[in-house]
Structure formats: structure tokens, C-alpha cells
Please model this.
Amino acid sequence: MSWRATLGLVLLLAAIVSGWSAWKNRDVPAPGRVVVDRSDYVMRDFEMIALNGDGREAVAVRAPLMERNPQDQTYTITTPLFLLPEEEGRSWELRSRTGWLSAKGEELRLQGDVHGTSPAGGARKADFRTQTLNVFPDRDLAMTDDVVTVTQPGSRLSGRGFEANLKTKDYQFKSQVRSIYEPRSAR
Model:
């Protein structure tokens, strides 16, 4: 056998051994390992209703896209419309660019261009705008540390830090409060 044939055989053997070694040492995910970046399910163009402990509607949500995180079973929602029911079949409407809903529906987080509207037909119609809002439907509570502007017929209030009782429609600002009053005669 010539030296070229021997060299070719040695190189072939080295290629087989290095290929086998690379194959055995590759990074293979363990079976049953959950990939964190993936949702376990996705809903498109949907409406979902969450019930409270008494079996009554606590919150309804409509949106074009919702994804559930398999790790903590929370939901990430794109351009949601949350409906928080009041008595007499009326609901608060809350809209935002993105939303987050806890696994059991006890907390909502709205982010980006948050717009809230009090129920139609109520005595004190109110609109508010902010950038973030945390809502606790079981406690009828909405709060944020951001700047909020509340518009009602004849007045506009703004301030930093906001807390609202959705049942009684009472709200308070924490700081930097400004008020503009427009009487009916000026409209």
C-alpha cells in the first residue's frame, strides 16, 4: 500500500471519528423541557368572560390576539377592550395598546394609550386617559402612578397618581392636580 492510500485511510478515519464526536456532543434539549418564549396556546379575534368567586361576570375581554404563558398561566393581549360590569347591565370600557391578565383574572394591567369610559347612562359620565393602569375587578379598584386626565361634562382634571373606585365612581389624584372648569354658558 502506498503512502497516499495510507494517508487517505487515516484522514477518512479521522473524519468519521470527529463526525461521530460532534454528533454525540451536540446540544440536545432534554425531553419535556418547556421553551419559555412560546405560548402554550393562542386565541385570535375572541371574546372571553371571567367569572368571580360567586359565579358572576368579573371581567370580559375582546381582542384580536391573546397568548398564554405556560410558566405562570398569565395572558398577554394585543389591543384589548376590557368590560368591567356594573349593576343594571352596564360596563366600564377600558382600552389600551397591550394588556396583561393574571391567571385567575384578579388583576389586569393595561399599557400604552389607556382610555377608560364610565358606563353609558350613568349620572356622572367620565372619560380618562393615561399610559398605564392596574385594575383589580374583585375590589372594584383601578390605579396608576402615571399622569391621568379625567374629562367630565364641564370639567377636566389631571394629576399624577390616580386611584378610582369603579363601583362608586369616586376617584382621587395623588399629586400635581390641575383643574379646568368650563361652565355651560361658555360652551
The chain has one helix and eleven strands. The two ends are 106 Å apart (CA to CA). The chain has a mean pLDDT of 83. The first helix runs from residue 3 to 24.
